[in-house]
Amino acid sequence: QGASSSSGPAVCYIHGGGMICLGPEHYDIPMKTYVTHTGIPFLLVDYRLAPEVQAPVPVTDSYAGLKYLFAHASELGVDPARIALMSDSAGGGIAASVTHLAKQKSGPKIAKQVLIYPMLDNLNTSEDPDTAPFATWSVDDNKTGWGALLGDKAGSDSVPVTHAAGRASIEDLKDLAPAYIDVGELDIFRDEDLEYARKLGKAGVSVEFHLYPGVPHAFETFAPTTKVGQAAVGNRLKFLAGL
């Protein structure tokens, strides 16, 4: 059936945690913030974690959550043409891979993708001396997360995009949903996020990108009352307002 006149947007959210920890119960505060300020309902996916499972299970679990939202859109009062995928950190990497999986499976069609300092590149294993002292998620942490998810393929440049979205080619990125990406200047994910945004643009995908100076990974979580933290949340809310 077509969307009713009262149907509205919705967001499928994939939480962070380095592929190895955290869950929906840790996201009460950010979910309350986003829902309160946008009025948009959120579905938060409880995907299985590495190392108990390995790739692509977190992605296929999250894809199942996205499909559930689409399948039940009518009864939930949701317009299926206005469903976004939103995520942070490891969840950002999972969400990016979900966009590729949805493309491979010819749906569902995601309206927008919001990737908050996403963990994309399994080859990000070299420490930057300029950012290392400020790392709230370190290169060593990154090795642990990717190792748990990918096992002996963690250092491979030939893993599929459904395992590590940073491996995507420009061709892989064509026809994906318009994207919003943000990251801190002192985040170890800075360069991979910049590169992913660049490749999305080259692929013809609309991208809104924010690089916040002088802040590390998850800066708005650790310092929510700072001007930069509030600005980041505000920019995400503005992007969602166009859903």
TrEMBL record:
Sorted UniProt keywords: Hydrolase
GO MF terms here are:
hydrolase activity
Q: Write down the InterPro entries for this protein, in alphabetical order.
A: AB_hydrolase_3, AB_hydrolase_fold, GDXG_lipolytic_enzyme
Q: Does the keyword Hydrolase apply?
A: yes
Q: Which SUPFAM superfamilies match?
A: alpha/beta-Hydrolases
Alpha/beta hydrolase fold-3 domain sequence ranges: 11-220
Which Pfam families is this protein grouped with?
Abhydrolase_3
PANTHER family, per this entry? AB HYDROLASE SUPERFAMILY PROTEIN C4A8.06C, ALPHA_BETA HYDROLASE FOLD-3 DOMAIN-CONTAINING PROTEIN-RELATED
What is the name listed in the Swiss-Prot or TrEMBL entry for this protein? Alpha/beta hydrolase fold-3 domain-containing protein
